Amino acid sequence: MMDANYYTKTLSFFILFFLFACHSLTAQNIDAATEFVKNDKKSKNLTSEDVAEIAVKDAYISPQNGFSYIYFQQRYQGVDVWNAIYNLVLEGDQVRHANTTFKTNLSLQTNNSQPQITSLQAVSLAAAHLGYTISSNLKVLTKEYRAGKEVQTVFSGAGISRNNIPGDLVWMTHDGQLRLAWNVNIESTVDSDWWNVKIDAASGEYLSKNNWTVYCKFDHAACTNPAHNGQNIFANYKEAVASQHSVAAFDYHVYPMPIESPNHGASAVVNSPWTDADICNANAVSLGWHDDGSNTYNTATRGNNVDAYEDTNNSNGPTGGNNARAVDASSDFNFPIDPTQPPSSYQDGAITNLFYWNNIIHDVTYHYGFDEPAGNFQESNEGRGGAGSDYVNAEAQDGGGSDNANFAT
Description:
With about 400 residues, this protein is of the alpha+beta class. The chain has helices at about 10-20, 25-40, 50, 105-110, 120-130, 235-240, 345-365; strands at about 55-60, 70-75, 80-90, 95-100, 140-145, 150-155, 165-175, 175-185, 195-200, 205-210, 215, 250-255, 270, 305-310, 390-395, 405-409.
């Protein structure tokens, strides 16, 4: 999650970076990938200018299959082209797969390469478009320059963003033309939205926005499965209650995989799910579910992959520490779930189910290659590559909304 946005200075810098960071990706891999992109330009209708400034955005070797995964960022006149990535899969120095979203004929599509609107003005314009009121001074924290121009400035949150606000200079397609724009990233302080807003760097015109937060509700257009219809909800509740018998360490009363909700089946008590060899990769669960490499949280719904807690006050954190988590002194997370009662009455059960499912998602996707070098979500990466310190904050009964789920990264 946290290592997705790199801002490269030179290709040679990143060759050295990945050599030391991954200890297995070689200059030969990078050279082979770079040569492939530049030699393959004609088949992709790219010009020499289109690939002249490519920069490594991310690269790693997967321990799952030994293949190298290399991602190049397209750049023109020192400025990144928005969502223009060339990704390659190599076995040794042989390219086995290649795909690209690089833009073609950049020199014929671009407008003025020097911004007339400053990054500070762009942040103010983006905030105004979103209806946010800046309540404190926008303080400049860092600046980055490339090819003689400011390409990124990071500002303080100024009361409108939970995190610092980066303003990145990018080329983006708008009305069939590549426009120089500022991409302003704001994580709202008033709801769960996390916006990228594009402001034209020549005129200050609003161009577009996209939300890093993905939402899903039962009445969402994507929910076409008839089992999502509310009329059958909680039909299996009595069966679910009857399943609560076990009292043992690392018991979890949940809706176990593949049951996605009370409407799709009965809950059950499962024990130490990370020991299920059919689900889990050994490296995925080497710390279990309640250890982050430095601390052990056997009595609470916290570990290396996820910290699960209630957030009814919409603080985006475990207010009160363990008081916000599901806790049991005997590590028995067999809490009652009664969806026919007020949500506050089964809060620990909801938190436990959320803890279970976030860990299951981590463990299953790990098996298919979403591991530490690929940028998964863990506190400790145990020396296997990647950034670490980016476990999932999983918030049950979030006060920011109702009858919905959302995820932002």
